Amino acid sequence: DAGITQSPRHKVTETGTPVTLRCHQTENHRYMYWYRQDPGHGLRLIHYSYGVKDTDKGEVSDGYSVSRSKTEDFLLTLESATSSQTSVYFCAISAARDSPLHFGNGTRLTVT
Amino acid sequence: GENVEQHPSTLSVQEGDSAVIKCTYSDSASNYFPWYKQELGKGPQLIIDIRSNVGEKKDQRIAVTLNKTAKHFSLHITETQPEDSAVYFCAASTGGVTGGGNKLTFGTGTQLKVEL
To answer: What is the DSSP string of chain B?
Structure first.
């Protein structure tokens, strides 16, 4: 594994509650990404970071926010969870802007 | 934006046979094409990648071919084994040229089953 830890691994929450997912890396890579995986859609980019405090939106960013205060941590927050955000969330890292991405083992989130 | 289509969605082969998975992409600026293998309960694992300045790349039983003119690329697995059974994803990106890192657009995946 590429030194990526996602927490929690599983979470069940209720509609309307805030949720924060954490991605922690030990590789000192500059770039970090959040993807969601849903049947029939593959993986879709939510947000990404190109450095501490530098983040930008991906393809499916509505309803999500991110923060990166340290190189090793990238947080994904659902301000008010909805059932459509039930998914498996994957964090990925890459060393440089054109380097391969390496993924963590995911967080399965269920919003009831 | 980029759109990646992947076929077939499921593929069943006999052990020892070859398996081929095909993807097409829409953005002519894309220049990086990785393939990932995902086992149940795990994250996608990079198995091979190719850049647009190369037409073919091999790594033991795995090979990837790229046709830039037709905008398609394929994964070839020879001498398949039961442990090759997994979901395979193709992806494409501009390789960070447009800034902000290597933002991949994924296909929808192929469930490969290798039968004994």
So the answer is: ---EEEE-SEEEEETTS-EEEEEEE--TT--EEEEEEE-TTS--EEEEEEETT-SEEEETTEEEEEETTTTEEEEEE-S--GGG-EEEEEEEB-TTTTSSS---EE---EEEEEE-
Mutation target among A98, A102, A105 for the B interface, most CBs of B within 10 A: A98
Instruction: Identify all chain B residues contacting A102, using CB atoms and an 8 Å cutoff.
Output: 46
Chain A nearest CA to B98, separation (Å): 9
Q: Residue A31: name the closest of A1, A56, A61, A60 by CA.
A: A56
pLDDT one-digit tens code per residue, A35-59: 999 988 899 999 999 999 999 999 9
Rounded Cα–Cα distance for residues B5 and B18 (Å): 21
pLDDT at B59 over 60: yes
A97 and B36 within 8 Å at the Cβ level: the answer is no
CA angle B42, B46, B52 (to 5 degrees): 150
Distance from CA of A25 to the nearest CA of B (A): 15
Q: Above 70 in pLDDT, residue A1?
A: no
Distances (CA, A) of A87 to A44, A99, B58: 11, 26, 34
